[in-house]
Design goal:
about 60% helix, alpha+beta, about 180 residues, Peroxidase, domain 1
Amino acid sequence: MKEPRVAARYAKSIMLSAKENSSLDNVYADMDMLHRLIGESKDLSLLLKSPILKEDKKQEAVNAVFNGKVETLTLNFMQLVIRQNRAAALGEIAEAFVAMYKAEKGIATVHITTAELLSSEMKAKISEQIKVANNLKVVDVIEHVDASIIGGAVIRMGDLQLDESVKAKINSIEREFLNA
């Protein structure tokens, strides 16, 4: 069950603690890794969400996996979340933290879908235009290839999407003809 308000509250608390301890960048790396691991590892995800396993067993497992690999603050935070019976929300909390960190640092992730791979010059040009238009410091471009769009590009940043694909143009013209 998704609990975005709970995730945001916990993410904000670890953000403030990380700032106080001057370890914000390290905690970001830990939370980014945690978010990816929970998404990629079905075993870890099931372990955290299991209603059968007691909190002490979940804490032992998390300690065994992450001890020495993450900041002490991050590990203590994960243990606290588990003790408060919110282990199932750890992935969501990590995702919320990553989003808060990126917003604070002026970093945006942009997904660009094209029919063929973009040249590095074109990718840099698009990245720079998005950076200037949105007053950002860094734009992380994630490129996707989908031949079905025929040409052009679909650019998605957060919940905004610009569809300038040939497929979208054809669909638009087709709708106009059908409605005429």
